[in-house]
Amino acid sequence: MSGGLGLLRTSAEDLNEVDLFGKPVNLLGFDIGGGAVGFITDRTGLRFDLRYFRHVRPGEELTGNSFGPVELSYWNASIGFVIRY
């Protein structure tokens, strides 16, 4: 299990250069998650990791266009192949 506190930087690119999305913003955020490694043989195995990211103040006023309050939260999952040597 692990977790952390830091800055989440939001940004978006508008390909039509209309500046629809506003300027990049730094938000105070946190993450919490965990993972595991399991070996199939003595030398090979699989690993996975699951994390949840969210900014701390959901009512915070953000720039850009939105319908309703803006909330930044998402899950991130990863799977990998492990080789022990």
Features:
4-stranded antiparallel β-sheet; mainly beta; 85 residues
Would you mind describing this structure in some detail?
- The protein is mainly beta.
- Helix content is 0%, strand content 55%.
- It contains no helices and four strands.
- The chain has strands spanning 2-10, 25-39, 44-55, 73-83.
- The chain has a four-stranded antiparallel β-sheet with strand order 1-2-3-4, with no helix packed on it.
- It is elongated.
- The two termini are 25 Å apart.
Strand order of the largest sheet: 1-2-3-4
Number of strands: 4
Q: Low-confidence segments, ≥5 residues, pLDDT <50? A: none
Overall SS class: mainly beta
Query: What percent of the residues sit in helical stretches (DSSP H or I)?
Result: under 10%
Main beta sheet: 4 strands, antiparallel
Gyration radius, in Å:
18 Å
How many angstroms separate the termini?
25 Å
